[in-house]
TrEMBL record:
InterPro entries: P-loop_NTPase (IPR027417). It comes from Amycolatopsis heterodermiae. It comes from the Bacteria. One of its GO terms (molecular function) is kinase activity. Keywords: Kinase, Transferase. This is Uridine kinase.
């Protein structure tokens, strides 16, 4: 794979331009996917909001971590089970139903920005938010690709195997990400792949 070195600021600028060019649907869903704690998915997603707004595109942030299943389901097989991390932690149905489906052509346009507070293990009771036509919802999180979630643009922050083992804070979770790479192959599914072995010096994949 060939990569072009790029600064974080220029990366955000180029992604903003690419998102701004998406006009086929009334509302756009963007995924920023990467290993939790080892890739700056939140920082990159946040960096896109203001530039999009300056281009006249309303932008709303959603974090997949606010759509985790309750602890009783996530930790049914223990708190450090990598297979459960891969298959059971994220409530895919809720993320699809409450965020992505409303953005579809005939959707209501009203999304739920958060569902579950994983730290307190209770519902957030967040109010629905109306996304205007032309609006963009940016979802950041881990293991987002290959599960049938309908994103208009998917960005995958890729780590080499060595960097993955070095940078993931929860060593027990590394097998979940390795399984993700092997089974889902997120780099093949993503529209944009960015190598982030060193987050200060990302590199954009160029086919």
């Amino acid at each position: 794979m060939r990569y072009r070195p790029i600064s974080p600021a220029v990366l955000a600028e180029e992604l903003t331009e690419r998102i701004g060019a998406l006009t086929e649907r009334p509302r756009i869903a963007v995924a920023i996917d990467g290993a939790a704690g080892a890739t700056e998915t939140t920082e990159l997603a946040d960096a896109l909001v203001e530039p999009l707004r300056l281009r006249g595109r309303a932008a709303l942030r959603v974090s997949a971590r606010d759509f985790l299943r309750p602890a009783s389901l996530r930790f049914e097989h223990g708190r450090t089970n990598p297979d459960a991390r891969y298959t059971d932690w994220l409530d895919l149905g809720a993320l699809r139903r409450e965020v992505l489906d409303p953005l579809a052509g005939r959707g209501s346009g009203e999304i739920l920005p958060s569902l579950w507070d994983a730290e307190r293990d209770r519902a957030t009771r967040a109010a629905r938010v109306a996304v205007p036509k032309g609006g963009v919802v940016i979802v950041d999180g881990e293991l987002l690709l290959g599960a049938g979630l309908a994103f208009d643009l998917a960005v995958h922050l890729w780590l080499s195997p060595a960097a993955l083992r070095r940078r993931v804070p929860d060593a027990w979770a590394v097998p979940a990400y390795e399984r993700y790479e092997e089974e889902a192959d997120p780099s093949a599914l993503a529209d944009v792949v960015v190598r982030v072995d060193d987050p200060r010096h990302p590199a954009l994949y160029t086919p």
